Amino acid sequence: MIELSELTKRYGGKTAVEGLTFAVRPGVVTGFLGPNGAGKSTTMRMILGLDRPTSGDVRIDGKRYDQLPEPLTYIGALLEARSVHPGRTAYHHLLCLAQSNGVPERRIGEVLDLVGLSGVARKRPKGFSLGMGQRLGIASALLGDPKILMFDEPVNGLDPEGIHWIRNLMKQLASDGRTVFVSSHLMSEMALTADHLVVIGQGRLLADTSMARFIEENSRPYVQVRSPDPERLRVSLAGAGLRPVPQPDGGFEVEGVPAARVGEIAAANGLVLHELSRRQASLEEAFMRLTHGSVEYQAREG
């Protein structure tokens, strides 16, 4: 488990993280979301002892990172996949990590095989593609067979097969009872992977909840309805006290009523329907709705 308590980090007069308190629990994949500049990378660096908090505390299974005797056996992390000595082969990069953390050498072959890099184990990573570099970074995180794993943008550079692989790997690690903490800007991928979400904006906690509840609380469910006689449909819905909102395809969005009620109104007025469906916002839409006031770097539409 990762536990943050009132974690704060300031750089001069700028506050990057302010009063963060949350726990990342085992058995689920926890997604870590926030706009650019929200403080996600700073938070992850403080978890790993790479940045010292201005105040507050962060614990890994009850200990600070610098108190862990062989840290890779407690927590494995992918923050910068390219953080590899260019003169070492993939195998020797992992060997150095293994020897410094009391990890048996046989584990190197296991993780290289797991991430699909056995065939390039004796090659230098400076010639690796971005996707291969990501796989080596994931191998490094898994090397100590830790109970806690932390990944920052793990699908960067991966092809569709690789994205499918890492998604299933994270789910499997969580189902094994491990703690999995993953940050990504790819909302569609996060929606398929995470069970729980921690969302921050401008360094502050905005949400700490399940995926389903996050979408429910930060979206507006509505009914999508479409008929070959849109004007009659509009009049019928309005006559029943509803407020149909016209859509570009000729259909209507109707809020505040179940789909069954819309269908009953149409049937009572002898209307043929080509579409009647309940819609829910996507994770991306819910995220944008929650964080719109916390975006530090925002481009203007042309």
From TrEMBL:
Name the UniProt key words of this record, in alphabetical order.
Answer: ATP-binding, Nucleotide-binding, Transport
Query: Residue limits of the ABC transporter domain?
Result: 2-227
What Pfam families does this protein map onto?
ABC_tran (PF00005)
Q: Which SUPFAM superfamilies match?
A: P-loop containing nucleoside triphosphate hydrolases
Spell out the PROSITE patterns in the cross-references: ABC_TRANSPORTER_2
Sample GO molecular function, one term: ATP binding
Query: Does the keyword field hold Transmembrane helix?
Result: no
Q: So what family is this one in?
A: Belongs to the ABC transporter superfamily.
Q: What is this protein called?
A: ATP-binding cassette domain-containing protein
Q: Which organism is it from?
A: Streptomyces johnsoniae
